[in-house]
Design brief:
The protein has six helices and eight strands. Helix 1 crosses helix 3 and helix 3 packs across helix 4. The relative contact order is 0.16. 38% of the residues lie in helices and 27% in strands. With 186 residues, it is an alpha/beta fold. The strands form two sheets. A six-stranded mixed beta sheet has the order 5-4-3-6-7-8, sandwiched between helices. A two-stranded antiparallel ribbon has the order 1-2. It has one domain: Rossmann fold (3-Layer(aba) Sandwich).
């Protein structure tokens, strides 16, 4: 297996190649930015899934988090959770994924959390990109409303705009695989 520093360097390259755009953008938070990171263009690629899975598992271990489930607000969190679940399975570990819907559907089971989840379980909420932390907060609220315990938040990219600090101040530690500074954006 390739060392973590090499995997990290390659994830940074892949994010720069596939996911970073420069220009004038309005972010989901309403803030304006001179760059946009569409991490899905990386996390939904075969190579990106492998990198995020390997680096994410290492980061979970490094933080001392031992979740039973990983997931977050659809759509950005979905490939991150699936990458972690697949990487864990390949290493003989049990870690399953869930998705938090933005709103409950009026048909089917009517659940907000879909996939693998159980009340009382320890989870890590995952994100593709953290800016303000609003998506993570929405996922945390859904998980806690269903009886889950959040050990922390794992993001692929932290834009370095205060979201991670705000989440940490609220009692939810945050770990990111890459920062905007590492991508040369700050």
């Amino acid at each position: 297996m390739t060392d973590l520093a090499t995997l990290h360097a390659r994830l940074c390259e892949l994010l720069r190649e596939r996911s970073v755009a420069r220009g004038d953008f309005v972010l989901a938070s309403g803030r304006r930015s001179t760059f946009y990171i569409d991490a899905r263009r990386t996390t939904m690629s075969g190579e990106g899934l492998v990198l995020v899975g390997a680096l994410g598992l290492a980061r979970l271990d490094g933080c001392g988090w031992a979740p039973r489930f990983v997931g977050g607000l659809t759509l950005g969190a979905d490939p991150v959770a699936y990458a972690l679940a697949a990487a864990a399975h390949a290493r003989g570990r049990t870690l399953d994924a869930f998705t938090v819907r933005r709103e409950v559907k009026p048909h089917g089971t009517g659940r907000r959390i879909e996939g693998c989840f159980a009340p009382g379980a320890t989870v890590v909420v995952v994100e593709d990109v953290i800016t303000t932390g609003a998506s993570a907060r929405a996922a945390i609220a859904a998980v806690e409303a269903e009886g889950g315990r959040v050990a922390g938040i794992l993001a692929v990219v932290d834009r370095d705009e205060g979201g991670a600090a705000a989440l940490a101040a609220a009692g939810y530690p945050v770990a990111a695989l890459v920062t905007a500074a590492e991508l040369g954006l700050r």
